[in-house]
Every structure is written in structure tokens, then in C-alpha cells.
Amino acid sequence: MGKNKIKHELISHEPNRRVTFKKRKASLFRKLTEITTLCGIIACAVVYDPSDSKMDAWPSPQEAFYVLENFKKLPEQRRGQFMMDQKAFLKKNISRLNGQLERARFKNQALDAELLLIEYLEGKNLPDSSRLGSLLTLEDQLAKKISFITNRIEFMEGLEPGKVDAEINSDEMGDQG
């Protein structure tokens, strides 16, 4: 089940808006406390209350000032290293999602080629010309697997008998992880 879309707008009733602001500010400060404790980082927050026209700083105004001064002392390149605006954030996410899409396409091609091999081995008719790309992918996969197995056999033949058992066990442990 998906979440319902939230309509972001100004809370029209002034007392409700102030109460909501205070609750959210307290929640923000609590989350900052948790993240600084769990991650061992130094953080600060400065929140301006529009109704009182005053500033609240977390953990305290002095500590927030100290954190901001240390931040300003950093070189420009280091300072902006982990900053991102909405555009950079979206580009990063699009890049990550494109990578996931490419991996999914590759996996689907591999599964299609494997299905094609299984159909062929079961004696079904050879595939039509529309699946020629799958046959080429299958050929590449089979060549890679043959090469891997050949290299593995050569590697195992070069080891002493006691080392072969240890090597097999370490490989099995690596495959499980």
C-alpha cells in the first residue's frame, strides 16, 4: 500500500500552526541528539520562530556558533564536499537508479539466455530469429563460464592436496556471504 500524498500548505489556524511548529522543532532537536549520539558526529541546528522572531539553537547558541566557525575555517573544496542542492541530489539519485536499471537489464538478459539454453536442452524447437541476441549473449556467458572453470581447474591442480580442501572451504564460505 502506498502512502497518501500530503498537501503541503500553511496551516491556516494560527494557534494550531504555533503548536505544530513547537512539536516539530522539538522532534527535530530530538533527532539531532540521536544522530549525534549514534554516529558520533558534531552537528548544530538554528531555527527561527516566525511568531516570536527569535532564534533557537541546538545544542546551545555557543556550541552552534563554535560548529559554524569550524565549518567556515574549512577550505572551500572540503566545505562543499558533502553539500548538495536539489539539482545535485536528483542527479545523484538518477545516476544511482540508472545503474540499478542497467544491472537489472543485464540480469534479465542473462536469465533470458539461460531460459533459452534450458529450452534447447529440453529438445524444444530452436528459437526464432527474434531471439538471436539472446543466443549471442548465451554464447558469451558460456565462454566466460568455460574460461572460469578452466582457470579454476588449473589453479586447483597447482595447489598441494591439503591446500585444495582449505581453498574449497574458503570459496564456499565466500559464496555464502
Automatic annotation (TrEMBL):
InterPro entries: SRF-like_MADS-box, TF_MADSbox, TF_MADSbox_sf. It is found in: Nucleus. Residues 87-114 form a coiled coil. Keywords: Coiled coil, DNA-binding, Nucleus, Transcription, Transcription regulation. This is PREDICTED: agamous MADS-box. It comes from the Eukaryota. Pfam families: SRF-TF. Residues 1-51 form the MADS-box domain. The keyword Nucleus applies. GO terms for cellular component: nucleus. One of its GO terms (molecular function) is DNA-binding transcription factor activity, RNA polymerase II-specific. The keyword Ribosomal protein does not apply. The lineage of its organism: Eukaryota, Viridiplantae, Streptophyta, Embryophyta, Tracheophyta. GO terms for biological process: positive regulation of transcription by RNA polymerase II. CDD domains: MADS_SRF_like. SUPFAM superfamilies: SRF-like.
